[in-house]
Amino acid sequence: MAGQQQIVHRCAKCGACTPVCPVYQSTARESHTARGKLHLFKRGGSFDSAYFNDLLSKCIQCGACDDVCPRNLNPSADIRAWRGQQPFGRDPHAFVKFLSRKVLASPLLQEGGSHTLRALFASLPQASGLRKRLDLLVPGLTARPPLPPSKKKSGSKPLSYFPGCLAQHLYTNIKAATALLANNCGYELYSPASLTCCGLASHASGNMKEARAAARRNIAAFGAGTPGAGTPGVTTPGVTTPADPDGPILTSCASCTSHLMSYPALFTDDPEMHKKALAFARRIQEFSTFFLGREGLTSSHPQETLFYHDPCHLRFGPCQVIKEPRQLLTEMNGCPPLPLPPHCCGQGGLCHLTNPDISKDIFTRAQHPLAELSTATVVTTCSGCLLQWQQGLAKAPHTAEHLAVFLAKISEDC
Ligand code: SF4
Ligand code: SF4
Hints:
This protein is α/β, with parallel strands linked by helices. The protein has 22 helices and 7 strands.
Protein backbone atom coordinates (compact mmCIF):
# COMPACT_ATOMS: atom_id res chain seq x y z
CA MET A 1 0.00 0.00 0.00
CA ALA A 2 2.88 2.33 0.83
CA GLY A 3 4.43 1.57 -2.58
CA GLN A 4 1.13 2.34 -4.28
CA GLN A 5 0.82 5.67 -2.47
CA GLN A 6 4.30 6.54 -3.73
CA ILE A 7 3.27 5.73 -7.30
CA VAL A 8 0.07 7.79 -7.24
CA HIS A 9 2.17 10.73 -6.02
CA ARG A 10 4.78 10.18 -8.73
CA CYS A 11 2.20 10.39 -11.53
CA ALA A 12 2.92 13.64 -13.42
CA LYS A 13 -0.59 13.67 -14.96
CA CYS A 14 1.08 14.10 -18.36
CA GLY A 15 -1.76 12.20 -20.05
CA ALA A 16 0.47 10.01 -22.21
CA CYS A 17 -1.50 6.98 -20.99
CA THR A 18 -4.87 8.45 -22.02
CA PRO A 19 -5.07 8.04 -25.83
CA VAL A 20 -3.55 4.54 -25.75
CA CYS A 21 -6.09 3.15 -23.26
CA PRO A 22 -8.63 0.96 -25.12
CA VAL A 23 -11.25 1.54 -22.41
CA TYR A 24 -10.87 5.32 -22.78
CA GLN A 25 -11.07 4.97 -26.58
CA SER A 26 -14.41 3.28 -26.05
CA THR A 27 -15.97 5.36 -23.28
CA ALA A 28 -14.15 8.73 -23.55
CA ARG A 29 -14.32 8.90 -19.73
CA GLU A 30 -11.17 10.38 -18.19
CA SER A 31 -11.80 8.44 -14.96
CA HIS A 32 -11.39 5.20 -16.93
CA THR A 33 -7.78 5.96 -17.86
CA ALA A 34 -4.76 5.05 -15.76
CA ARG A 35 -4.25 8.75 -14.98
CA GLY A 36 -7.87 9.10 -13.87
CA LYS A 37 -7.70 6.08 -11.60
CA LEU A 38 -4.37 7.13 -10.06
CA HIS A 39 -5.69 10.65 -9.49
CA LEU A 40 -8.86 9.41 -7.84
CA PHE A 41 -6.89 7.11 -5.58
CA LYS A 42 -4.55 9.94 -4.62
CA ARG A 43 -7.56 12.09 -3.79
CA GLY A 44 -8.97 9.46 -1.46
CA GLY A 45 -10.97 7.09 -3.68
CA SER A 46 -12.63 4.74 -1.24
CA PHE A 47 -13.74 1.11 -1.36
CA ASP A 48 -16.93 2.36 0.33
CA SER A 49 -17.85 3.99 -2.98
CA ALA A 50 -19.75 1.84 -5.48
CA TYR A 51 -18.42 4.05 -8.31
CA PHE A 52 -14.80 3.51 -7.29
CA ASN A 53 -15.28 -0.27 -6.97
CA ASP A 54 -16.86 -0.47 -10.40
CA LEU A 55 -14.16 1.78 -11.87
CA LEU A 56 -11.49 -0.78 -10.99
CA SER A 57 -13.20 -3.33 -13.24
CA LYS A 58 -12.85 -0.97 -16.22
CA CYS A 59 -9.36 -2.07 -17.20
CA ILE A 60 -8.34 -4.71 -19.74
CA GLN A 61 -4.89 -5.06 -18.12
CA CYS A 62 -3.45 -4.59 -21.60
CA GLY A 63 -0.30 -2.84 -20.35
CA ALA A 64 -0.46 0.02 -22.91
CA CYS A 65 -0.29 2.62 -20.11
CA ASP A 66 2.80 0.95 -18.59
CA ASP A 67 4.43 0.93 -22.01
CA VAL A 68 4.09 4.67 -22.68
CA CYS A 69 4.50 6.13 -19.19
CA PRO A 70 7.51 8.50 -19.31
CA ARG A 71 7.97 8.04 -15.56
CA ASN A 72 8.20 4.26 -15.90
CA LEU A 73 5.22 3.77 -13.61
CA ASN A 74 3.15 0.59 -13.86
CA PRO A 75 -0.45 1.77 -13.43
CA SER A 76 -1.81 -1.64 -14.47
CA ALA A 77 -0.05 -3.19 -11.46
CA ASP A 78 -1.65 -0.60 -9.15
CA ILE A 79 -5.09 -1.32 -10.58
CA ARG A 80 -4.49 -5.04 -9.90
CA ALA A 81 -3.31 -4.32 -6.37
CA TRP A 82 -6.43 -2.22 -5.66
CA ARG A 83 -8.61 -4.97 -7.07
CA GLY A 84 -6.92 -7.33 -4.61
CA GLN A 85 -7.90 -5.06 -1.71
CA GLN A 86 -11.57 -4.71 -2.67
CA PRO A 87 -13.86 -6.09 0.06
CA PHE A 88 -15.76 -9.02 -1.49
CA GLY A 89 -19.16 -7.60 -0.57
CA ARG A 90 -18.40 -4.20 -2.13
CA ASP A 91 -17.13 -5.43 -5.48
CA PRO A 92 -20.11 -5.50 -7.88
CA HIS A 93 -18.32 -8.15 -9.99
CA ALA A 94 -16.98 -10.24 -7.11
CA PHE A 95 -19.01 -13.35 -7.87
CA VAL A 96 -18.20 -13.59 -11.59
CA LYS A 97 -14.51 -12.98 -10.84
CA PHE A 98 -14.52 -15.57 -8.05
CA LEU A 99 -16.22 -18.15 -10.29
CA SER A 100 -13.87 -17.66 -13.25
CA ARG A 101 -10.81 -17.90 -10.98
CA LYS A 102 -12.07 -21.10 -9.36
CA VAL A 103 -12.85 -22.74 -12.71
CA LEU A 104 -9.46 -21.77 -14.13
CA ALA A 105 -7.68 -23.06 -11.02
CA SER A 106 -9.25 -26.50 -11.40
CA PRO A 107 -8.26 -28.63 -14.43
CA LEU A 108 -10.92 -31.15 -13.31
CA LEU A 109 -13.71 -28.54 -13.40
CA GLN A 110 -12.52 -27.32 -16.81
CA GLU A 111 -12.35 -30.82 -18.27
CA GLY A 112 -15.76 -31.72 -16.79
CA GLY A 113 -17.30 -28.44 -18.01
CA SER A 114 -15.97 -28.71 -21.57
CA HIS A 115 -17.00 -32.39 -21.73
CA THR A 116 -20.55 -31.54 -20.59
CA LEU A 117 -20.83 -28.61 -23.02
CA ARG A 118 -19.58 -30.75 -25.92
CA ALA A 119 -22.06 -33.54 -25.07
CA LEU A 120 -24.92 -31.01 -24.80
CA PHE A 121 -23.89 -29.34 -28.07
CA ALA A 122 -23.69 -32.68 -29.93
CA SER A 123 -27.10 -33.78 -28.63
CA LEU A 124 -28.93 -30.64 -29.80
CA PRO A 125 -30.62 -30.60 -33.25
CA GLN A 126 -28.90 -28.47 -35.91
CA ALA A 127 -31.81 -25.99 -35.94
CA SER A 128 -31.90 -25.62 -32.14
CA GLY A 129 -31.76 -22.03 -30.87
CA LEU A 130 -29.76 -23.15 -27.83
CA ARG A 131 -27.20 -24.83 -30.12
CA LYS A 132 -26.82 -21.55 -32.05
CA ARG A 133 -26.42 -19.57 -28.84
CA LEU A 134 -23.83 -22.02 -27.52
CA ASP A 135 -21.94 -21.84 -30.81
CA LEU A 136 -21.83 -18.03 -30.53
CA LEU A 137 -20.74 -18.08 -26.89
CA VAL A 138 -18.25 -20.96 -27.04
CA PRO A 139 -17.03 -21.26 -30.65
CA GLY A 140 -14.57 -24.04 -29.70
CA LEU A 141 -17.44 -26.55 -29.33
CA THR A 142 -18.02 -26.84 -33.08
CA ALA A 143 -16.44 -29.94 -34.64
CA ARG A 144 -13.29 -28.92 -36.51
CA PRO A 145 -12.05 -30.42 -39.78
CA PRO A 146 -9.25 -32.91 -39.10
CA LEU A 147 -5.67 -31.68 -39.38
CA PRO A 148 -3.37 -33.16 -42.03
CA PRO A 149 -1.30 -36.19 -40.96
CA SER A 150 1.98 -35.48 -39.19
CA LYS A 151 5.27 -36.08 -40.97
CA LYS A 152 6.83 -37.46 -37.82
CA LYS A 153 10.44 -38.43 -38.15
CA SER A 154 12.17 -41.18 -36.23
CA GLY A 155 14.45 -39.95 -33.49
CA SER A 156 12.26 -36.92 -32.62
CA LYS A 157 13.59 -34.85 -29.74
CA PRO A 158 11.36 -34.49 -26.66
CA LEU A 159 10.22 -30.93 -25.97
CA SER A 160 8.30 -29.50 -22.99
CA TYR A 161 5.00 -27.81 -23.88
CA PHE A 162 2.64 -25.55 -21.91
CA PRO A 163 -0.69 -25.53 -23.82
CA GLY A 164 -2.72 -23.25 -21.49
CA CYS A 165 -6.31 -23.88 -20.32
CA LEU A 166 -8.15 -23.03 -23.54
CA ALA A 167 -5.95 -25.26 -25.75
CA GLN A 168 -6.01 -28.01 -23.14
CA HIS A 169 -9.78 -28.15 -22.64
CA LEU A 170 -11.64 -26.16 -25.29
CA TYR A 171 -9.55 -25.37 -28.38
CA THR A 172 -7.89 -28.78 -28.39
CA ASN A 173 -7.10 -28.29 -32.10
CA ILE A 174 -4.49 -25.66 -31.07
CA LYS A 175 -2.69 -28.31 -29.02
CA ALA A 176 -3.00 -30.87 -31.85
CA ALA A 177 -1.77 -28.35 -34.46
CA THR A 178 1.21 -27.32 -32.31
CA ALA A 179 2.11 -31.01 -31.83
CA LEU A 180 1.83 -31.59 -35.59
CA LEU A 181 4.09 -28.65 -36.47
CA ALA A 182 6.58 -29.73 -33.78
CA ASN A 183 6.55 -33.30 -35.16
CA ASN A 184 7.22 -31.98 -38.67
CA CYS A 185 10.25 -30.14 -37.28
CA GLY A 186 11.54 -33.24 -35.45
CA TYR A 187 10.12 -32.70 -31.93
CA GLU A 188 7.71 -34.64 -29.71
CA LEU A 189 5.77 -32.53 -27.21
CA TYR A 190 5.38 -33.46 -23.54
CA SER A 191 3.17 -31.73 -20.97
CA PRO A 192 3.40 -32.75 -17.29
CA ALA A 193 0.05 -33.99 -15.94
CA SER A 194 0.32 -31.74 -12.87
CA LEU A 195 0.19 -28.51 -14.90
CA THR A 196 -2.44 -25.96 -13.98
CA CYS A 197 -3.69 -22.61 -15.32
CA CYS A 198 -0.83 -20.09 -15.69
CA GLY A 199 -2.64 -18.00 -13.05
CA LEU A 200 -3.27 -14.91 -15.17
CA ALA A 201 -6.96 -14.60 -14.16
CA SER A 202 -6.04 -14.65 -10.45
CA HIS A 203 -3.27 -12.13 -11.12
CA ALA A 204 -5.61 -9.80 -13.06
CA SER A 205 -8.11 -9.86 -10.21
CA GLY A 206 -5.37 -8.97 -7.72
CA ASN A 207 -5.44 -12.33 -5.93
CA MET A 208 -1.69 -12.79 -5.52
CA LYS A 209 -2.06 -15.79 -3.20
CA GLU A 210 -3.77 -17.81 -5.93
CA ALA A 211 -1.44 -16.44 -8.64
CA ARG A 212 1.62 -17.55 -6.64
CA ALA A 213 0.11 -20.99 -5.95
CA ALA A 214 -0.40 -21.54 -9.71
CA ALA A 215 3.15 -20.37 -10.45
CA ARG A 216 4.65 -22.67 -7.80
CA ARG A 217 2.75 -25.65 -9.21
CA ASN A 218 3.79 -25.00 -12.82
CA ILE A 219 7.42 -24.36 -11.91
CA ALA A 220 7.47 -27.66 -9.98
CA ALA A 221 5.72 -29.50 -12.83
CA PHE A 222 8.48 -28.58 -15.28
CA GLY A 223 11.15 -28.74 -12.60
CA ALA A 224 14.50 -30.43 -12.87
CA GLY A 225 14.50 -34.19 -12.30
CA THR A 226 15.81 -37.38 -13.73
CA PRO A 227 14.38 -37.84 -17.22
CA GLY A 228 12.16 -40.91 -17.30
CA ALA A 229 9.51 -42.55 -19.44
CA GLY A 230 6.52 -40.54 -20.59
CA THR A 231 3.64 -40.53 -23.03
CA PRO A 232 3.78 -37.90 -25.79
CA GLY A 233 1.19 -35.21 -25.21
CA VAL A 234 0.96 -35.77 -21.49
CA THR A 235 2.99 -37.45 -18.78
CA THR A 236 1.53 -39.37 -15.89
CA PRO A 237 1.75 -37.98 -12.34
CA GLY A 238 5.03 -38.87 -10.68
CA VAL A 239 6.73 -39.63 -13.98
CA THR A 240 9.15 -37.00 -15.14
CA THR A 241 8.85 -35.86 -18.75
CA PRO A 242 11.71 -37.12 -20.94
CA ALA A 243 12.15 -33.56 -22.20
CA ASP A 244 15.29 -31.78 -20.98
CA PRO A 245 14.40 -30.52 -17.45
CA ASP A 246 16.43 -27.38 -18.13
CA GLY A 247 15.46 -27.06 -21.78
CA PRO A 248 12.93 -24.78 -23.51
CA ILE A 249 9.22 -24.87 -22.72
CA LEU A 250 7.16 -24.18 -25.83
CA THR A 251 3.96 -22.14 -25.37
CA SER A 252 1.13 -21.54 -27.83
CA CYS A 253 -0.84 -18.80 -26.04
CA ALA A 254 0.48 -15.23 -25.94
CA SER A 255 -1.21 -14.43 -22.61
CA CYS A 256 0.18 -17.55 -20.93
CA THR A 257 3.60 -16.83 -22.45
CA SER A 258 3.69 -13.29 -21.08
CA HIS A 259 2.45 -14.35 -17.66
CA LEU A 260 4.82 -17.34 -17.36
CA MET A 261 7.68 -14.96 -18.22
CA SER A 262 6.45 -12.64 -15.46
CA TYR A 263 6.62 -15.28 -12.70
CA PRO A 264 9.78 -13.78 -11.13
CA ALA A 265 7.80 -10.60 -10.29
CA LEU A 266 5.47 -12.71 -8.11
CA PHE A 267 8.31 -13.74 -5.80
CA THR A 268 10.32 -10.59 -5.16
CA ASP A 269 10.03 -11.25 -1.38
CA ASP A 270 11.08 -14.92 -1.61
CA PRO A 271 14.70 -15.25 -2.84
CA GLU A 272 14.59 -19.03 -3.32
CA MET A 273 11.35 -19.02 -5.35
CA HIS A 274 12.50 -15.92 -7.23
CA LYS A 275 15.60 -17.78 -8.39
CA LYS A 276 13.51 -20.76 -9.53
CA ALA A 277 11.02 -18.44 -11.27
CA LEU A 278 13.85 -16.65 -13.10
CA ALA A 279 15.26 -19.97 -14.36
CA PHE A 280 11.74 -21.05 -15.38
CA ALA A 281 10.98 -17.76 -17.18
CA ARG A 282 14.19 -18.05 -19.22
CA ARG A 283 13.01 -21.42 -20.53
CA ILE A 284 9.73 -20.07 -21.96
CA GLN A 285 9.74 -20.10 -25.73
CA GLU A 286 7.03 -18.12 -27.53
CA PHE A 287 5.32 -20.01 -30.39
CA SER A 288 6.37 -17.95 -33.45
CA THR A 289 9.95 -17.35 -32.24
CA PHE A 290 10.31 -21.12 -31.81
CA PHE A 291 9.01 -22.07 -35.26
CA LEU A 292 10.46 -19.21 -37.31
CA GLY A 293 13.15 -20.50 -39.70
CA ARG A 294 12.77 -24.18 -38.62
CA GLU A 295 13.34 -26.87 -41.20
CA GLY A 296 10.30 -29.05 -41.86
CA LEU A 297 7.70 -26.31 -42.23
CA THR A 298 6.39 -26.02 -45.76
CA SER A 299 3.02 -25.10 -47.21
CA SER A 300 0.96 -25.60 -50.31
CA HIS A 301 -2.21 -23.58 -49.78
CA PRO A 302 -1.37 -19.88 -49.60
CA GLN A 303 -4.26 -17.67 -48.57
CA GLU A 304 -4.48 -14.07 -49.71
CA THR A 305 -6.91 -12.12 -47.53
CA LEU A 306 -5.07 -12.80 -44.33
CA PHE A 307 -4.62 -10.54 -41.30
CA TYR A 308 -2.56 -11.00 -38.15
CA HIS A 309 -3.94 -9.66 -34.85
CA ASP A 310 -1.27 -8.63 -32.31
CA PRO A 311 -2.24 -9.81 -28.81
CA CYS A 312 -1.59 -7.04 -26.24
CA HIS A 313 0.47 -9.55 -24.24
CA LEU A 314 2.95 -9.76 -27.12
CA ARG A 315 2.96 -5.99 -27.73
CA PHE A 316 3.61 -4.94 -24.14
CA GLY A 317 5.26 -6.55 -21.14
CA PRO A 318 8.17 -8.98 -20.87
CA CYS A 319 7.60 -10.75 -24.20
CA GLN A 320 7.62 -8.22 -27.03
CA VAL A 321 7.08 -10.27 -30.17
CA ILE A 322 5.77 -8.25 -33.11
CA LYS A 323 7.77 -9.15 -36.22
CA GLU A 324 8.18 -12.90 -35.74
CA PRO A 325 4.54 -14.03 -36.27
CA ARG A 326 4.40 -11.92 -39.46
CA GLN A 327 7.72 -13.33 -40.67
CA LEU A 328 6.53 -16.87 -39.95
CA LEU A 329 3.29 -16.22 -41.85
CA THR A 330 5.23 -14.70 -44.75
CA GLU A 331 7.59 -17.68 -44.79
CA MET A 332 4.78 -20.24 -44.78
CA ASN A 333 1.99 -18.45 -46.61
CA GLY A 334 4.21 -17.01 -49.34
CA CYS A 335 3.05 -13.40 -48.77
CA PRO A 336 2.96 -11.11 -45.74
CA PRO A 337 -0.33 -10.69 -43.85
CA LEU A 338 -2.34 -7.56 -44.68
CA PRO A 339 -1.87 -4.67 -42.26
CA LEU A 340 -4.27 -4.62 -39.30
CA PRO A 341 -3.57 -1.63 -37.02
CA PRO A 342 -2.49 -2.84 -33.57
CA HIS A 343 -5.58 -2.65 -31.38
CA CYS A 344 -6.73 -4.46 -28.26
CA CYS A 345 -9.52 -6.96 -29.05
CA GLY A 346 -11.37 -6.19 -25.79
CA GLN A 347 -10.78 -9.57 -24.12
CA GLY A 348 -8.65 -9.47 -21.01
CA GLY A 349 -8.27 -8.44 -17.40
CA LEU A 350 -11.70 -10.05 -16.75
CA CYS A 351 -13.18 -6.91 -18.39
CA HIS A 352 -14.99 -9.02 -21.00
CA LEU A 353 -16.88 -10.68 -18.12
CA THR A 354 -17.49 -7.62 -15.97
CA ASN A 355 -18.05 -5.03 -18.74
CA PRO A 356 -19.25 -6.92 -21.84
CA ASP A 357 -20.51 -3.74 -23.55
CA ILE A 358 -17.12 -2.03 -23.34
CA SER A 359 -15.40 -5.25 -24.42
CA LYS A 360 -17.71 -5.53 -27.44
CA ASP A 361 -17.18 -1.89 -28.42
CA ILE A 362 -13.39 -2.30 -28.27
CA PHE A 363 -13.70 -5.36 -30.49
CA THR A 364 -15.84 -3.46 -33.01
CA ARG A 365 -12.99 -0.95 -33.39
CA ALA A 366 -10.40 -3.72 -33.74
CA GLN A 367 -12.28 -5.45 -36.55
CA HIS A 368 -13.19 -2.22 -38.40
CA PRO A 369 -10.64 -2.76 -41.26
CA LEU A 370 -12.51 -5.95 -42.20
CA ALA A 371 -15.88 -4.22 -42.51
CA GLU A 372 -15.78 -3.70 -46.29
CA LEU A 373 -14.28 -7.08 -47.17
CA SER A 374 -16.31 -9.98 -48.50
CA THR A 375 -14.20 -12.59 -46.72
CA ALA A 376 -11.03 -12.62 -44.66
CA THR A 377 -9.12 -14.74 -42.17
CA VAL A 378 -7.65 -13.30 -38.98
CA VAL A 379 -4.94 -15.27 -37.22
CA THR A 380 -3.58 -14.65 -33.77
CA THR A 381 -1.43 -16.42 -31.20
CA CYS A 382 -3.54 -15.82 -28.07
CA SER A 383 -6.33 -18.25 -27.12
CA GLY A 384 -8.23 -15.44 -25.36
CA CYS A 385 -8.02 -13.11 -28.38
CA LEU A 386 -9.10 -16.03 -30.56
CA LEU A 387 -12.21 -16.58 -28.44
CA GLN A 388 -13.05 -12.86 -28.73
CA TRP A 389 -12.47 -12.79 -32.51
CA GLN A 390 -14.49 -15.97 -33.10
CA GLN A 391 -17.38 -14.68 -30.97
CA GLY A 392 -17.21 -11.25 -32.62
CA LEU A 393 -17.04 -12.60 -36.18
CA ALA A 394 -19.69 -15.30 -35.66
CA LYS A 395 -22.21 -13.42 -37.81
CA ALA A 396 -19.66 -12.04 -40.31
CA PRO A 397 -18.35 -13.76 -43.47
CA HIS A 398 -14.85 -13.88 -41.90
CA THR A 399 -13.04 -16.51 -39.86
CA ALA A 400 -10.50 -16.41 -37.05
CA GLU A 401 -7.89 -19.07 -36.36
CA HIS A 402 -4.99 -19.65 -34.05
CA LEU A 403 -1.67 -19.30 -35.90
CA ALA A 404 -0.80 -22.94 -35.11
CA VAL A 405 -4.06 -24.22 -36.62
CA PHE A 406 -3.71 -21.99 -39.68
CA LEU A 407 -0.12 -23.16 -40.32
CA ALA A 408 -1.04 -26.81 -39.77
CA LYS A 409 -3.87 -26.48 -42.29
CA ILE A 410 -1.74 -24.90 -45.00
CA SER A 411 0.99 -27.50 -44.47
CA GLU A 412 -1.33 -30.15 -45.91
CA ASP A 413 -0.09 -32.35 -48.81
CA CYS A 414 3.50 -31.16 -48.64
S1 SF4 B 1 1.70 8.32 -18.48
FE1 SF4 B 1 2.46 7.89 -16.38
S2 SF4 B 1 2.95 9.92 -15.51
FE2 SF4 B 1 1.72 10.29 -17.35
S3 SF4 B 1 -0.41 10.45 -16.56
FE3 SF4 B 1 -0.10 8.28 -17.15
S4 SF4 B 1 0.60 7.24 -15.28
FE4 SF4 B 1 0.83 9.47 -14.92
S1 SF4 C 1 -3.87 -1.48 -18.55
FE1 SF4 C 1 -4.82 -0.91 -20.55
S2 SF4 C 1 -7.05 -0.80 -20.11
FE2 SF4 C 1 -5.98 -0.72 -18.10
S3 SF4 C 1 -5.74 1.48 -17.66
FE3 SF4 C 1 -3.83 0.78 -18.68
S4 SF4 C 1 -4.17 1.24 -20.88
FE4 SF4 C 1 -6.21 1.31 -19.87
